[in-house]
Design brief:
2 copies of one chain form a homodimer. The first copy, chain A, contains 24 helices and no strands. Chain A has helices spanning 6-11, 19-47, 54-91, 97-136, 143-176, 180-221, 233-271, 278-296, 306-332, 345-350, 355-381, 386-393, 399-431, 436-451, 454-477, 483-532, 537-547, 553-594, 607-621, 623-640, 642-678, 688-733, 740-763, 772-777. Chain A is an all-alpha fold. In chain A, helix 6 packs across helix 18 (553-594), helix 7 packs antiparallel against helix 14 (436-451) and helix 18 runs antiparallel to helix 20. The relative contact order of chain A is 0.12. Helices cover 81% and strands 0% of the residues of chain A. At the A-B interface, helix 6, helix 12, helix 13, helix 14 and helix 16 of A face helix 6, helix 12, helix 13, helix 14 and helix 16 of B. Chains A, B: Its cofactor is Mg(2+). Chains A, B: Its main location: membrane. Chains A, B: This is K(+)-insensitive pyrophosphate-energized proton pump. Chains A, B: Pfam families: H_PPase.
């Protein structure tokens, strides 16, 4: 039942990882840098395209300035926070100062890499949008060119995600060898923490602008989306980039980094030295195949839609990955576990499979999971399938039935996704044949299997905001007409589906990474118990497994609290969007009222003011959910102990998985139901059915683009915080703590911070604007 | 760490429970029958009131007939199902045939009691509604009389709930003595299973009628609620009774019975014989104080609102309960654990507290929890508080913001409720001072503390549908005017809040009962392991606690699946309402179209047809969620084993608690936001704000009255099924199973049934009516 004791791992640092193995890791690092080179090539290709008319360029520049201003201000705010965490990490237990400093340093590296990935993806996206729009000016034949520019822009984000993620992890292994696990924790934590803030902040920005723009523009004034008279349009387009583009890239970078971290920590325990290499080889293969995938997305004559080309890119790279991984497993790994230095003799007897088959099947599970989740998400969110058609049909009986059917669809689809992920975890678990540490490594390897598809996935996702922006620029400038405009609409619809698919796969990586990190947590707990001394080995084992026995009431309480954090986080994120959107509504209304020239087109609205409001509000609003994620595990761990903390994580993972998919798919379905009506079903634009689906879409906006995707980094941050504090919590739990008072203080402090942050966010709970003043200024529809 | 081994409990059946103890139990049974006597007196008082005009009586008779027809048909359907379960239960392991037969027999008793409680409460409610309306004809001074009739009607349901629950449990103890636990499992299962079906079926009926009536009446035709021209009005009023009244009474009866069952099973293990008596004394005291509470609800001159009187009834009975329980604990229980025959000597050394203080504090936790949850729910759903005011304010920016703010409110309030319940469980756990079985008994005792308030709670809840119906009858007949109508509106608003409070407390009882049942599950597992033989005691303990170690991937999978069942169940319930409401919409539209006389009042609509549709559809729709609840634990247990089954329950409890409160409070807040606008805020009736809140209320209907409250019996049914199959699952898990093939068959069968049921419910996923035909018949708003 027990894996290798990590004590052996920690104490083995005098034995060096063999030179041959390090050579492989160096090759991986070189491949990772190669990915950045490919990215540079793609950037040149994208920037070489035509920028369109003056008017288009002007709009693009406004978006570029807004996006850069937001990210700069966000990074400045987060830098202070990161510096604080840098020093706090130093205080946490480690074997020596080498580990402590490495952990803190690589925490910063992880955070910076996460930021860079997001920034670069966005930097290019705000330059490519106008080029896609310009390409569409050529009319009907322009689809292929426009699509290629958009997808290659995504390719840059994809290459940065995998390149930096792989390079960072390889660097840690090269520099720290056997000490790598502790340092990797720091790297993963930096990546996850920054990604969470970028996800939450970007998510609030984009949806505040979007919802605000829709409420005044479409609903109150009856002007179309992206109409230049709406002061929130530039902010809306900026939001697509800072949220869907920078936020998502950082998020997937974080998934990438954290999965690698978990695989390397567990790999060392299960496979010995080879376990520090093989989990790097798999994603390195993914880098190579991602390049193939990105270049394969050349639309062909026979394609039904833009989606066909993207699907081809995905499946081509998945199949090539699988073949190459099989080759790598059989070339690199030995045929017997006894030739690896991971498992104990007793365990090798219990598990007589071929490690090459073991590794290959585990990776296969991950790749297949990615493909199946892609199909499932497509089924529930594409306009051609029955679920969205059914939701659209309910628009005939008004907005209430649209909301209800969308919520039911989301709840149900979440269950299928959860069952699929469960089957994958269970499959990996069975590969371990009862040896828990090996089972956990199999889960982590399945995670690296998923990672082989991440390059293409990020490219697919970035495709969304770029084509959305392109349509926005075309609409605002009025310089793209006829067939060209139709091409952009088609690309936008394809982007909606790719965005939904990315979210499905992102949450799958989150569950696999979190489950695997759980293994590291288990490890950390055992090490801490070992070091605490006093008890004999058997009693330690018993007392620990009792501690995490889920049928104990205190652990059930931990579990309920973990589920509660997911609910609270989602509620806070949705509320934050409502509040920020209220401020946008107020500003846009105000501009319409004080400058009558805007409506007749003789005067331009002040776009910058709305961008400023979104920037200010989203940065203020991200504090509460962010602090909640960091502080909740500390509060639970130091108050309730090690068992409830484990159950807390389990509760968060279980509820978080379902909630994330529910929010993403409900939102995606509503978005596409609206598109169906706009395409002419049930009365088309302007009908009651259209109004009903617009309401559904507005509800879905913060679901799918703020709360839902942020749950992914939330789970990882909470897992990593727990991993970092586990040794300290164990000491407290078994009463061997010399710093009891300090820990109690930490618990009390965490609770106070959470309560304070929630209270702070409630202070301004007015959603409509600045209270009654606004109420008088804006007559209700009936009165108007 | 270990409590007394239940093997001792099982084998002790030759030692008889002392005569003195049985005397106490007989007294409890007499008190329980006394409660039924009080109910008879209340019935006489209610029926003695004036029945109003002919026209009012005619409407009341239509409601009575519809309600009786539905329940009769439901009971006929469920009788077949219950007969099947009766024989299946015989097949499950037990010590002897005496236990087997007792368990099956008392399964039927539990089911029949549950049905009777629901039926009687409803029988009186459909007779009292017209009397309340008639009383209101007296005008301004009629509030007190009307309120008294409504609340005493609820009192009958309350007395039946506590009377039958207590009588059933006492009877089992009297008849089976030491064998009681196994038989009690049957009793609890019968109560929970029937309650779940009544909850789901009644919930679908009431909301299909309500949503259908609103969609055609308020939204399409612009006629007020309860307008006699709407063919769905009678069905709507019938629904209030079969859902909110019969369904809720059965549900709380089930909570009552299951909590008692858990307390008695654990009481035997922790307190010995006294543990089979004390958990009956506490609710017996609750019966006495409930009578006081019900008679205390006499409105006084100084009362701010009807709510003041109801609050007084609740708090008076809670305080008296506490004083009497203190008395009972100090008179009945000894001052040392060594004077009880529950704990082992070793455990007594570890726990040196006074058992009387232990018991009193545990009960106190439950009573305080009930009071605090009442306040919390009130805060989030009352119109005078900030949360609902904020939701109402968002109606200025349209339905989308109303939905978003209501969802955020629900998510957040669920977290506070979960934290409160967690604190209560943790408090009880700490009372156990490390002895798990004692901690679990403390949780169960806290549950019995909650139970002391159930009599008043049911009375409060039934108040809701009665006053709602009274308003409906007044509106339809047109015979209550001026001040009298205002009195009925006030009572209706009070009813909305009492209904929300009941749901909060119901879910709290669910968590406490489920946690305590968990203890029984733990017990059952140990017994089964003991009986399996082979391993020595220490290894058994270790292997078991390993089995339920939450950090193992297979257990995490179990947990995710448990959370998934809650999501699926909620999604199915919401979808069922949408589908059934679609059929109602179609029928009502059809009547308006084919009989033009209805609209101008020259012709009466055919109310009966809508009642028939609701009856047929709700009975068909309850099959899928019902089968899911029963089959899911079987599928998980027999496929994944005992650990994942435990984690499955934990995941369901964690997610279920949050989901239930979220759905209840979002729905309650939307309902009252609508009321606020109707009372004149933000433009009043007919304004855009009103339209927005109507949409919110319609979304909230299936949230708060179908999906949300059904989660409560869902958790209990899944727990009891797990408890019943636990011995068989253990045999399978430790490989000592002689019937492996049979069990695999059971697992496969369960999976097939679940998949089949879900597929079946999807077949007819059209929500609007009969497809495209309907689409052409009903022009969209824009076209009209």
């Amino acid at each position: 039942m027990s894996g290798i004791h990590p004590s052996e791992l920690q104490l083995a640092s005098d034995v060096s990882v063999s030179g041959g193995n390090i050579t492989y890791v160096v090759i991986v690092a070189v491949i990772a840098l190669g990915a950045l080179g490919v990215a540079a090539g793609l950037v040149r290709q994208v920037l070489g395209a035509d920028e369109g008319t003056d008017s288009m360029r002007r709009i693009a520049v406004a978006i570029q300035e807004g996006a850069a201003a937001y990210l700069t201000r966000q990074f400045r705010t987060l830098a202070v926070f990161a510096a604080g965490v840098f020093f706090l990490l130093m205080l946490l237990p480690a074997d020596d100062w080498n580990q402590r400093i490495g952990r803190s340093l690589f925490f910063l590296v992880g955070a910076v890499f996460s930021a860079v990935t997001g920034y670069v993806g966005m930097w290019l996206a705000v330059r490519s949008n106008v080029r896609v729009a310009a390409a569409a000016r050529a009319g009907a034949g322009s689809r292929d060119t426009a699509m290629r520019i958009a997808f290659r822009t995504g390719g840059v984000a994809g290459m940065f995600t995998v390149g930096l993620g792989l390079f960072g992890a390889a660097l840690v292994v090269i520099l720290y060898r056997e000490n790598a696990p502790k340092v990797l924790e720091g790297f993963g934590f930096g990546a996850a923490l920054l990604a969470m803030f970028m996800r939450v902040g970007g998510g609030i920005f984009t949806k505040a602008a979007d919802v605000g723009a829709d409420l005044v523009g479409k609903v109150e004034q009856g002007i179309p989306e992206d109409d230049p008279r709406n002061a929130a349009t530039i902010a809306d387009n900026v939001g697509d980039n800072v949220g869907d583009c920078a936020g998502m890239a950082a998020d997937l970078f974080e998934s990438y980094a954290v999965t690698l971290v978990a695989a390397l920590i567990l790999g060392k325990a299960a496979f010995g030295d080879a376990g520090l290499v093989f989990p790097l080889i798999v994603p390195a293969i993914g880098v190579l195949t991602a390049v193939v995938g990105i270049y394969t997305v050349a639309p062909r004559a026979g394609d039904r839609s833009g989606m066909s080309a993207i699907n081809r890119g995905f499946f081509v790279s998945a199949v090539i990955s699988l073949v190459l991984v099989a080759g790598a497993a059989f070339l690199y790994l030995p045929s017997k576990f006894s030739d690896l230095d991971g498992l104990t003799d007793q365990e090798i007897l219990a598990h007589d499979a071929d490690p090459r088959v073991f590794a290959l099947v585990a990776v296969l599970i991950g790749i297949v999971l990615a493909a199946v989740i892609q199909q499932l998400t497509g089924y529930f969110t594409e306009t051609s399938r029955r679920p969205v058609r059914d939701v659209t049909k309910t628009s005939l009986t008004g907005p209430a039935t649209v909301i209800l059917s969308g919520i039911a669809l989301g709840l149900e689809s979440a269950v299928y996704a959860a069952v699929l992920i469960s089957v994958a975890v269970l499959g990996a678990y069975l590969l371990g044949a009862g040896i828990v540490m090996l089972a956990l490594f199999a889960v982590a390897l399945a995670g690296t299997g998923l990672l082989t598809t991440v390059g293409v996935i990020v490219a697919m996702d970035t495709f969304g905001p770029v084509s959305d922006n392109a349509q926005g620029i075309a609409e605002m400038s009025g310089d793209v007409e006829g067939e060209g405009a139709r091409v952009l609409t088609e690309l936008d619809a394809v982007g909606n589906t790719t965005k939904a698919i990315t979210k499905g796969i992102a949450i799958a990586t989150a569950v696999l990474a979190a489950t695997a990190l759980y293994g590291s947590y288990r490890d950390a707990v055992r090490t801490a118990v070992d070091e605490a001394g006093g008890l004999d080995a058997a009693s330690k084992l018993t007392s620990l497994s009792f501690a995490t026995d889920i049928t104990q009431p205190n652990n059930l309480v931990g579990l309920i609290l973990g589920a509660a954090v997911v609910f609270l986080f989602s509620g806070l994120a949705i509320n934050a969007v409502s509040r920020a959107a209220g401020a946008v509504v107020f500003e846009v209304r105000n501009q319409f009222r004080t400058r009558p020239g805007i409506m007749d087109g003789s005067e331009l609205p002040e776009y910058g003011r709305v961008v400023d409001i979104c920037t200010r509000d989203s940065l203020r609003e991200l504090a509460t959910p962010g602090l909640l994620a960091v502080m909740a595990p500390i509060a639970v761990g130091f108050t309730l102990g090690i068992g409830p903390l484990a159950a807390f994580l389990a509760g968060a993972i279980g509820t978080g998985t379902l909630m994330a998919v529910f929010l993403a798919n409900s939102g995606g379905a509503w978005d596409n139901a609206k598109k169906m009506v706009e395409d002419g079903d049930y009365g088309g634009k302007g009908s009651a059915a259209h109004e009903a689906t617009i309401i559904g879409d507005t509800v879905g906006d913060p679901f799918k683009d703020t709360a839902g995707p942020a749950i992914n980094p939330l789970l990882k941050v909470m897992n990593l915080v727990s991993l970092l504090i586990a040794p300290a919590v164990v000491k407290l739990s078994i009463g061997a703590d010399e710093n009891g008072a300090l820990r109690a203080l930490a618990a009390a402090f965490s609770v106070v911070v959470i309560v304070g942050a929630v209270w702070y966010s409630k202070r301004k709970s007015v959603v409509v604007g600045d209270g009654d003043q606004d109420r008088e200024e804006q007559p209700t529809k009936a009165a108007a």
